[in-house]
Amino acid sequence: MAVQFEFYKNPVQDEEEGEACYHPRVINSQSISTQELAAEIHAATTYGKSEVEGMLMELSQCMEHHLREGRRVHLDGIGYFQVTLQTTEPIHSTTARANKVKYKSVSFQTDKKLRSKLANMHLQRSKLKPHSASLSEAEIDQKLTAYFTTHPVLTRSAMQSLCHFTRSMAARHIQRLKRLGYIENIGLYTQPIYVACPGHYER
Predict the structure, then answer these.
(1) Is 143:151 a contact under the CB 8 Å cutoff?
(2) Which strand ranges, in their side-by-side order, compose the sheet holding 3-9?
(3) Greater model confidence, 112 or 135
(4) Order of strands, edge to edge, in the sheet holding 73-75?
(5) For 166-180, what is each residue's pLDDT tens digit?
(6) pLDDT above 70 coverage of the chain, percent
(7) Of the candidates 8, 40, 36, 44, which has an alpha carbon nearest to the alpha carbon of residue 125?
(8) Nearest 5°: phi and psi at 44?
(9) How far is CA 139 from CA 134, 199, 200, in A?
(10) Are 158 and 151 in contact (CB under 8 A)?
(11) pLDDT of 16-49, one tens digit each?
């Protein structure tokens, strides 16, 4: 099985060359669940499937404990996990209070053993075409004007379907339209629902 990929246009163009540049990106068509991993490990060992699932869950809990203590967790043959931080506002002094710092994410650094095993993987151009449609801002506005004549609200998935955008591209344009004051969220932060602001998208 080959790794499927597609080329995506770089957001910043090469000024010296004066032409668009592209970068390859893996196309993820599916995820592997804990249960599926447990079934594979069960098939390759003498451990029961439920035992493997239990061990994987315990591994997750142990990692959480040590990461909460600020430790770096190394899984041999897999890689290193470490907590990363961010500030709640710009910091201009090393004497800033601790309450200005909060959790950001968990970084992962691949183990050398795993990197070497993956070095010879087979790559294949994806048969899917996940690229977003190339629409100008004016064309997007035209589509939204027509959309809001028959729909009271807009969601990210609706934006995807309307403009033939990928999930990330639809989200970026929604954020742009929010900043411009064209739409506003009347839903929850985690479940946004957008409506047109007065004076926008009206025929």
Answers:
(1) no
(2) 22-26, 3-9, 123-125
(3) 112
(4) 73-75, 79-87, 101-110
(5) 788 888 899 999 999
(6) 92
(7) 8
(8) -95, -5
(9) 10, 18, 14
(10) yes
(11) 556 777 778 787 757 788 888 999 999 999 999 9
